Amino acid sequence: MLQNEHMQWITLDYDLIKCQIKRIDDDCYLALSRHKLAFTECFDVWESYLSSSDNEELKTAPLAFFLMIFENAFGPSGSWYDRYKGAFSFPFALRLLRKDTVIPYLLHVSCWRGSVEVCFYKIIPADETRYDTSIIHKPFDDELAERQMQVLVNFLMGFAVGFWTGTRRNKDKWEKLFPEDKQQDFVKAIDSNCILFGCKDRRLFQMCYSDRDEYEQKKSELLMSYQHALHQKMVEDVFFKPGKVDSPTGNPPWL
Known about the structure:
Blueprint: E1 10-13, E2 18-23, H1 26-32, E3 36-39, H2 43-52, H3 56-60, H4 62-74, E4 89-98, E5 101-112, E6 115-123, E7 136-137, H5 146-169, H6 171-177, E8 186-190, E9 195-200, E10 203-208, H7 212-240
Parallel strand pairs: 3-7
Antiparallel strand pairs: 1-2, 2-4, 3-6, 4-5, 5-6, 8-9, 9-10
Helix pairs in contact: 4-5
Protein backbone atom coordinates (compact mmCIF):
# COMPACT_ATOMS: atom_id res chain seq x y z
CA MET A 1 0.00 0.00 0.00
CA LEU A 2 1.09 3.56 -0.63
CA GLN A 3 1.94 5.87 2.23
CA ASN A 4 -0.99 7.87 3.63
CA GLU A 5 0.51 11.15 2.47
CA HIS A 6 0.03 10.01 -1.11
CA MET A 7 -3.56 8.79 -0.57
CA GLN A 8 -5.30 12.13 -0.05
CA TRP A 9 -7.90 13.58 -2.39
CA ILE A 10 -6.66 16.50 -4.47
CA THR A 11 -9.38 18.94 -5.52
CA LEU A 12 -9.52 20.65 -8.91
CA ASP A 13 -12.12 23.42 -9.10
CA TYR A 14 -11.95 24.85 -12.61
CA ASP A 15 -14.42 26.49 -14.98
CA LEU A 16 -14.50 23.41 -17.19
CA ILE A 17 -14.25 20.70 -14.55
CA LYS A 18 -14.79 20.19 -10.84
CA CYS A 19 -13.35 16.96 -9.49
CA GLN A 20 -11.23 15.22 -6.89
CA ILE A 21 -8.43 12.78 -7.61
CA LYS A 22 -6.18 10.55 -5.51
CA ARG A 23 -3.52 7.94 -6.11
CA ILE A 24 -4.53 4.30 -5.56
CA ASP A 25 -2.50 1.10 -5.49
CA ASP A 26 -2.49 -1.70 -8.07
CA ASP A 27 -4.84 -4.00 -6.13
CA CYS A 28 -7.47 -1.28 -5.79
CA TYR A 29 -7.10 -0.30 -9.44
CA LEU A 30 -7.48 -3.88 -10.69
CA ALA A 31 -10.49 -4.53 -8.46
CA LEU A 32 -12.28 -1.37 -9.59
CA SER A 33 -11.42 -1.90 -13.26
CA ARG A 34 -13.33 -5.17 -13.47
CA HIS A 35 -16.43 -3.15 -14.29
CA LYS A 36 -15.48 -0.19 -16.45
CA LEU A 37 -15.87 1.52 -19.81
CA ALA A 38 -12.69 2.46 -21.63
CA PHE A 39 -12.25 5.74 -23.53
CA THR A 40 -9.74 6.83 -26.16
CA GLU A 41 -6.23 7.65 -24.89
CA CYS A 42 -4.94 11.20 -24.45
CA PHE A 43 -1.53 10.89 -26.12
CA ASP A 44 -1.61 14.44 -27.48
CA VAL A 45 -1.63 16.00 -24.00
CA TRP A 46 1.87 14.70 -23.25
CA GLU A 47 3.23 15.76 -26.64
CA SER A 48 1.71 19.21 -26.21
CA TYR A 49 3.21 19.55 -22.74
CA LEU A 50 6.65 18.57 -24.04
CA SER A 51 6.58 21.01 -26.94
CA SER A 52 5.45 23.96 -24.82
CA SER A 53 7.77 23.44 -21.84
CA ASP A 54 11.05 25.33 -21.40
CA ASN A 55 12.29 23.01 -18.63
CA GLU A 56 15.74 21.74 -19.65
CA GLU A 57 15.54 18.60 -17.49
CA LEU A 58 12.26 17.70 -19.14
CA LYS A 59 13.61 18.39 -22.63
CA THR A 60 16.78 16.36 -22.04
CA ALA A 61 15.21 13.29 -20.42
CA PRO A 62 11.41 13.53 -20.55
CA LEU A 63 10.60 10.03 -19.26
CA ALA A 64 13.15 10.17 -16.43
CA PHE A 65 11.91 13.60 -15.41
CA PHE A 66 8.27 12.49 -15.55
CA LEU A 67 8.89 9.40 -13.43
CA MET A 68 10.93 11.35 -10.88
CA ILE A 69 8.38 14.13 -10.34
CA PHE A 70 5.36 11.79 -10.33
CA GLU A 71 6.92 9.46 -7.76
CA ASN A 72 7.84 12.47 -5.65
CA ALA A 73 4.29 13.84 -5.76
CA PHE A 74 2.14 10.70 -5.87
CA GLY A 75 4.23 7.83 -4.51
CA PRO A 76 6.18 4.97 -6.14
CA SER A 77 5.20 3.63 -9.55
CA GLY A 78 2.90 0.64 -9.59
CA SER A 79 3.65 -2.59 -11.44
CA TRP A 80 0.64 -2.74 -13.75
CA TYR A 81 2.28 -2.12 -17.13
CA ASP A 82 3.65 -4.03 -20.14
CA ARG A 83 7.27 -4.89 -19.24
CA TYR A 84 8.33 -4.97 -22.90
CA LYS A 85 6.67 -1.71 -23.98
CA GLY A 86 6.45 0.27 -20.72
CA ALA A 87 8.34 1.30 -17.61
CA PHE A 88 5.96 2.80 -15.03
CA SER A 89 2.32 3.05 -13.97
CA PHE A 90 0.30 5.50 -11.86
CA PRO A 91 -3.40 4.64 -11.28
CA PHE A 92 -5.76 7.23 -9.80
CA ALA A 93 -9.34 7.30 -8.57
CA LEU A 94 -11.31 10.23 -10.00
CA ARG A 95 -14.51 11.72 -8.57
CA LEU A 96 -16.42 14.02 -10.93
CA LEU A 97 -18.49 16.45 -8.89
CA ARG A 98 -21.91 17.33 -10.30
CA LYS A 99 -23.92 19.32 -7.73
CA ASP A 100 -24.83 16.64 -5.19
CA THR A 101 -23.73 13.76 -7.42
CA VAL A 102 -20.37 11.99 -7.57
CA ILE A 103 -19.51 10.13 -10.79
CA PRO A 104 -16.68 7.60 -10.34
CA TYR A 105 -13.91 7.28 -12.94
CA LEU A 106 -10.41 5.81 -13.07
CA LEU A 107 -7.36 7.52 -14.54
CA HIS A 108 -4.30 5.49 -15.51
CA VAL A 109 -1.05 7.25 -16.41
CA SER A 110 1.60 4.91 -17.80
CA CYS A 111 4.57 4.63 -20.13
CA TRP A 112 3.93 3.20 -23.59
CA ARG A 113 6.64 2.84 -26.25
CA GLY A 114 8.54 5.91 -25.13
CA SER A 115 5.58 8.19 -24.54
CA VAL A 116 3.26 8.90 -21.63
CA GLU A 117 -0.18 7.35 -22.13
CA VAL A 118 -3.20 8.67 -20.26
CA CYS A 119 -6.33 6.50 -20.15
CA PHE A 120 -9.72 7.28 -18.60
CA TYR A 121 -12.31 4.72 -17.53
CA LYS A 122 -15.86 5.12 -16.26
CA ILE A 123 -16.80 2.87 -13.36
CA ILE A 124 -20.16 1.15 -13.94
CA PRO A 125 -22.34 -1.06 -11.71
CA ALA A 126 -21.44 -4.75 -11.76
CA ASP A 127 -24.87 -5.60 -13.22
CA GLU A 128 -24.81 -2.85 -15.88
CA THR A 129 -25.91 -4.17 -19.31
CA ARG A 130 -26.51 -1.01 -21.40
CA TYR A 131 -22.92 -0.64 -22.61
CA ASP A 132 -20.54 -2.82 -24.58
CA THR A 133 -17.48 -3.11 -22.32
CA SER A 134 -15.40 -4.82 -25.03
CA ILE A 135 -14.95 -1.68 -27.16
CA ILE A 136 -13.30 1.73 -26.78
CA HIS A 137 -15.90 4.48 -26.33
CA LYS A 138 -15.82 8.15 -27.20
CA PRO A 139 -15.87 10.42 -24.13
CA PHE A 140 -19.28 11.17 -22.66
CA ASP A 141 -19.45 14.93 -23.20
CA ASP A 142 -22.12 15.40 -20.55
CA GLU A 143 -19.79 13.86 -17.94
CA LEU A 144 -16.13 14.11 -18.94
CA ALA A 145 -15.46 15.58 -22.36
CA GLU A 146 -12.09 15.36 -24.11
CA ARG A 147 -11.25 18.99 -23.32
CA GLN A 148 -11.93 18.35 -19.62
CA MET A 149 -9.63 15.32 -19.75
CA GLN A 150 -6.87 17.53 -21.15
CA VAL A 151 -7.37 20.12 -18.40
CA LEU A 152 -7.14 17.41 -15.74
CA VAL A 153 -3.95 15.88 -17.17
CA ASN A 154 -2.30 19.30 -17.42
CA PHE A 155 -3.33 19.96 -13.82
CA LEU A 156 -1.65 16.73 -12.66
CA MET A 157 1.53 17.60 -14.54
CA GLY A 158 1.54 21.11 -13.11
CA PHE A 159 0.88 19.77 -9.61
CA ALA A 160 3.79 17.32 -9.85
CA VAL A 161 6.16 19.96 -11.25
CA GLY A 162 5.13 22.43 -8.55
CA PHE A 163 5.60 19.79 -5.84
CA TRP A 164 9.06 18.99 -7.21
CA THR A 165 10.07 22.66 -7.47
CA GLY A 166 8.92 23.31 -3.91
CA THR A 167 10.94 20.35 -2.66
CA ARG A 168 14.09 21.62 -4.36
CA ARG A 169 13.67 25.02 -2.74
CA ASN A 170 13.25 23.49 0.70
CA LYS A 171 16.71 22.33 1.82
CA ASP A 172 15.43 19.93 4.49
CA LYS A 173 12.96 18.24 2.13
CA TRP A 174 15.57 18.07 -0.62
CA GLU A 175 18.16 16.43 1.64
CA LYS A 176 15.53 13.98 2.84
CA LEU A 177 14.62 13.11 -0.74
CA PHE A 178 18.22 12.92 -1.95
CA PRO A 179 20.43 12.19 1.09
CA GLU A 180 24.12 11.96 0.28
CA ASP A 181 24.53 8.43 1.65
CA LYS A 182 21.63 6.88 -0.26
CA GLN A 183 21.57 5.16 -3.66
CA GLN A 184 19.47 7.39 -5.91
CA ASP A 185 20.39 6.12 -9.37
CA PHE A 186 17.78 4.26 -11.37
CA VAL A 187 17.64 2.69 -14.83
CA LYS A 188 14.55 1.88 -16.89
CA ALA A 189 14.44 0.07 -20.23
CA ILE A 190 11.78 0.05 -22.94
CA ASP A 191 12.78 -2.92 -25.08
CA SER A 192 10.13 -2.37 -27.75
CA ASN A 193 11.69 0.96 -28.78
CA CYS A 194 15.30 0.49 -27.57
CA ILE A 195 15.07 3.31 -25.01
CA LEU A 196 17.06 3.62 -21.81
CA PHE A 197 16.34 6.33 -19.25
CA GLY A 198 16.99 7.07 -15.63
CA CYS A 199 19.30 8.91 -13.26
CA LYS A 200 23.05 8.35 -12.91
CA ASP A 201 25.21 10.37 -10.52
CA ARG A 202 22.18 12.63 -9.96
CA ARG A 203 21.92 13.47 -13.66
CA LEU A 204 18.86 12.51 -15.67
CA PHE A 205 19.39 10.77 -18.98
CA GLN A 206 17.41 9.29 -21.86
CA MET A 207 19.00 7.43 -24.78
CA CYS A 208 17.34 6.01 -27.89
CA TYR A 209 19.12 3.43 -30.05
CA SER A 210 18.56 2.42 -33.66
CA ASP A 211 20.89 -0.58 -33.36
CA ARG A 212 19.47 -3.42 -31.25
CA ASP A 213 22.87 -4.92 -30.39
CA GLU A 214 24.23 -1.58 -29.22
CA TYR A 215 21.11 -1.09 -27.13
CA GLU A 216 21.38 -4.51 -25.49
CA GLN A 217 25.06 -3.95 -24.68
CA LYS A 218 24.44 -0.56 -23.07
CA LYS A 219 21.39 -1.88 -21.25
CA SER A 220 23.44 -4.72 -19.80
CA GLU A 221 26.18 -2.33 -18.66
CA LEU A 222 23.80 0.11 -16.99
CA LEU A 223 21.51 -2.46 -15.40
CA MET A 224 24.39 -4.55 -14.07
CA SER A 225 25.94 -1.55 -12.34
CA TYR A 226 22.55 -0.42 -11.04
CA GLN A 227 21.52 -3.87 -9.78
CA HIS A 228 24.89 -4.38 -8.05
CA ALA A 229 24.47 -1.04 -6.27
CA LEU A 230 20.92 -1.97 -5.21
CA HIS A 231 22.12 -5.32 -3.91
CA GLN A 232 24.90 -3.72 -1.88
CA LYS A 233 22.49 -1.15 -0.44
CA MET A 234 20.07 -3.93 0.58
CA VAL A 235 22.87 -5.91 2.25
CA GLU A 236 23.94 -2.84 4.21
CA ASP A 237 20.36 -1.96 5.22
CA VAL A 238 19.48 -5.50 6.33
CA PHE A 239 22.70 -6.68 7.97
CA PHE A 240 24.69 -3.63 9.02
CA LYS A 241 22.27 -0.75 9.64
CA PRO A 242 21.86 -0.03 13.38
CA GLY A 243 18.47 -1.09 14.68
CA LYS A 244 16.54 -2.63 17.54
CA VAL A 245 17.73 -6.04 18.75
CA ASP A 246 14.81 -8.06 20.10
CA SER A 247 16.91 -10.80 21.75
CA PRO A 248 20.24 -9.49 23.15
CA THR A 249 21.20 -12.94 24.52
CA GLY A 250 21.10 -14.52 21.09
CA ASN A 251 18.25 -16.86 22.07
CA PRO A 252 14.85 -16.76 20.35
CA PRO A 253 12.56 -14.32 22.21
CA TRP A 254 10.12 -17.10 23.14
CA LEU A 255 12.80 -19.07 25.10
